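Ligand-bound model needed. magnesium ion.
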Amino acid sequence: MAKVKTSYFCQNCGAQYAKWQGQCTSCREWNTIVEEVIQKEEKSSWKQGTSGSGQKKTSRPLKIHEITRTEEHRMSSGDHEFNRVLGGGIVPGSVILLGGEPGIGKSTLLLQIALQLPYKTLYVSGEESQSQIKMRAERINPGSEHCYVLTETKTQNIFKQIESTDPDILIIDSIQTLHSDYIESSAGSISQIRECTAELIKFAKETDTPVILIGHITKEGNIAGPKILEHMVDTVLQFEGDRNYVYRILRALKNRFGSTAELGIYEMLGDGLREVTNPSEILISQSKDALSGTAISATLEGIRPLMIEIQALVSTAVYGTPQRSTTGYNVKRLNMLLAVLEKRAGFRLGAKDVFLNVTGGISVDDPAIDLAVVAAVLSSNEDIAIPKDACFAAEIGLAGEIRPIQRVDQRILEAEKLGFSTIFISGQNKVAVKNSNIRIALVSKIEDVISDLF
Ligand code: TYD
Ligand code: MG
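Prediction:
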């Protein structure tokens, strides 16, 4: 009997070793190295039986102006947000990986897209049966004519079905459930994921069929399996949001065919995901009275302007050490801003509990939110409400100075569109917007904001 060939793989980062060891030298995790059976077999095409095309075309270097560019063609997915994140649509032959936590709505999103697509689509699920998918599809969009559903986990069988169905787009839910005959180890192991992805990439490139893969996410928020997966595919999308809220954000972490600055916003409803075309209106609470501790920030998510409400609660600490807790905002950044307020503006917040909340369950890392955070904290501390028609967009430096931010005009226009009458920005920002109905309050120190507001 031939000797079974095995190798050792780190289940965290995918590094390969010749023998077992306790700690992975590449990602420094302990006890993640597992022996997996690998078996090499000659194969050069995703199709079974065919052994490649005999003589292969070899490439030779060309001057950049000699290269003829084929007109970029994109397949519209029928979903504006999805198209926007991909940079205009699905590129033929590209491989897209969609990651996200369990239950966030990855299967729903892709099934919905499969049902909307005007192309022949094959949706392969290794997780749900055909009748389960049918039940879900009936809730979302029962009228699709082009969507085929297959429950299968073996790549060779999938390719066999592809030969007879000949789809224009292939969707795989999820890459962790697939297994290939060429590898002995169990589904979901590093070598299986790598092999199955490689086979699918080969299929995509040889037939110019786009492939969309769903990938699970680990506790740490990485796509489960090897980081290598992210290097192999053309586009990595992340579907995120707080499961307790209805909003979901789709963003590109990597995109070979477009920018990673765009993002798509969805709302999870009883009958699938709905595109949110005007997110700002939803993220701001519609209460009539101005409440203390609330401030609105004109932020940018990627390149999309978004008005976000910040809520702060400042109260006297009950225990010796004051608590600082945040949702949707970096707690270290909050501590820094509180230190700046204490040192530069003379507010005694050292013995106060401070809680901060970004509403809507989204998390923000745009530095332009700083000024709204400070305004919300001061408003709660003084118990004076900030007028509901004022908003903020500026970063705060360690010296207490109010710093300029990028794309200020876009933020001003969004604020104006939503009916705000004042926007506070840094005095150093150059504003190109003219004849706007909104008052642009240029401030350079926290004191300027305080004297204008309170
Ligand atoms: P699912 O797509 O199965 O998540 P994932 O594939 O990322 O694990 O969706 C999970 C949740 O979405 C589920 O808890 C129920 C909810 N949901 C809705 O609220 N409305 C719907 O129309 C559908 C299909 C699902
Ligand atoms: Mg799923």
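The chain is about 25% helix and 25% strand.
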